[in-house]
Amino acid sequence: MPPRPVGDRYDALREPMKRALEALVMERQTEGKATFPPFAQKIFERGISEGFRDGERKGFHDGERKGFHDGELKGKQEGELKGKHEGELKGKRDVLLRLLARAGIALSDEQRSRILGCDDGATLDRWVENVLEAKTAADVLS
What is d(CA 57, CA 88) in angstroms, rounded to the nearest whole number? Predict the structure, then answer.
């Protein structure tokens, strides 16, 4: 096919016509009215199917990455909170034992274990307050 002469009067219309035709075909296809030759319909359907599979695969991987990241972040935050809480409890236990020693209040092994095993900050606070007026370990741990 010989090349067209420059300035062919149809060249200016070629691209706008192509876009208009593509838009019309897409509009009619979404309405279920467009028909294509069987080979074109197969290509069209294959493109939709591959696009769907690619989107699904990408969405799954993106979701998996986000879920892993969010889980890791949540785990880190929970670990930090738990570590902080454990540190506060340990500090309260240590203060209580030092105050008892300073007050000259002796502890049995069972009472020491009870203090060291206590995981309730409010209870430890109450026991620390009790040391100020206590005469015995039983007074403190009441």
Answer: 46
How far is it, in rounded angstroms, from Cα 142 to Cα 139?
5
Closest to 92 in 3D by CA, of 111, 117, 61: 117
Q: Which two tokens stand for residue 98?
A: 């030092």
| Length of the chain counted residue by residue | 142
How far is residue 24's CA from residue 31's CA, in Å, rounded to a whole number?
Answer: 11
CB 28 within 8 A of CB 34: yes
Distances in whole angstroms, Cα of residue 85 to Cα of each of 57, 79, 118, 121: 41, 10, 13, 9
Confirm whether pTM is higher than 0.70: no
Q: In 7-35, which positions are buried (b, 16+ CB within 10 angstroms) versus exposed (e)?
A: eeeeeeeeeeeeeeeeeeeeeeeeeeeee
Beta strands in 5-141 (DSSP E): none
User: Along the chain (142 residues), what's the average pLDDT of each consecutive run of 10 residues?
Assistant: 55 70 69 63 72 79 81 83 89 92 93 94 94 93 92
What is the residue whose two structure tokens read 């075909």? 25
